[in-house]
Write a structure and sequence with these properties.
By secondary structure, the protein is mainly α. It is 61% helix and 0% strand. The chain is flat. The termini are far apart.
Length: 218
């Protein structure tokens, strides 16, 4: 009897986790607009109707993506002797890391804020704990959370190419006459050679140390 030249591949069971992972992969590689029940079904190798045994609808699926991403949030270690700015800085970098890993998820955050599980709110809880522990009241803590969070989101969008700025080639700029735009001309080499890590650290320190000074003055 001839020896088989191919092996039958075992069928991978369809689960909610597998569907969510496939959706996140599509978002990471093709963008949020590419996500549809048919596209996800094709990614996992089933008919679209089979997905509804594990997710209610597309809205439920996208909430699952948020829960998956925020469930993987890497909370930094915190020593009891850490200054709040030290730990706040580590927490901000953790936010940046999770957003850089899945930049298209930021659009979901903008549209629906959070998923349906408490785990999606734990990173927010950690940030508000730091800010309230620094001496801010509830309203001020939320204001600081939105301000710092807006910086992180905007910066990741810039370094991911969703906003102007970041790494630019000097040839992207028109000729800049120093006599008309002396400051742009002088800064052009640095505009064209953006150090993402250095600029993120600079901006984050501006906000955290400014907040420390504001709390001290109050």
């Amino acid at each position: 009897m001839p020896r088989p030249t191919t092996l039958t591949k075992a069928r991978v069971p369809l689960t909610r986790d597998r569907i969510v992972d496939a959706t996140l992969h599509i978002m990471d590689t093709e963008g949020l607009d590419a996500v549809s029940m048919r596209r996800v079904a094709r990614e996992v190798g089933v008919e679209a109707m089979s997905l509804y045994n594990h997710v209610r609808d597309k809205d439920d699926l996208l909430n699952g993506v948020i829960e998956r991403v925020m469930g993987g949030f890497a909370f930094p270690d915190r020593d009891q002797h850490d200054d709040w700015v030290v730990y706040g800085r580590r927490l901000a970098y953790a936010w940046r890391d999770v957003l850089r890993a899945h930049p298209t998820v930021m659009q979901l955050f903008a549209e629906r804020k959070h998923g349906t599980s408490l785990d999606t709110l734990r990173p927010m809880e950690a940030a508000l704990e730091v800010l309230r522990g620094a001496g801010l009241g509830e309203r001020e803590a939320v204001q600081a959370f939105h301000t710092i969070g807006g910086f992180i989101f905007g910066y990741v969008m810039m370094e991911s190419g969703y906003l102007p700025g970041g790494q630019q080639n000097a040839q992207m700029f028109p000729p800049v006459p120093p006599d008309e735009l002396p400051n742009v001309a002088a800064c052009l080499p640095y505009l064209a050679d953006c150090d993402f890590d250095g600029e993120f650290a600079f901006g984050l320190d501006l906000m955290l140390e400014g907040l420390r000074a504001k709390i001290g003055a109050g």
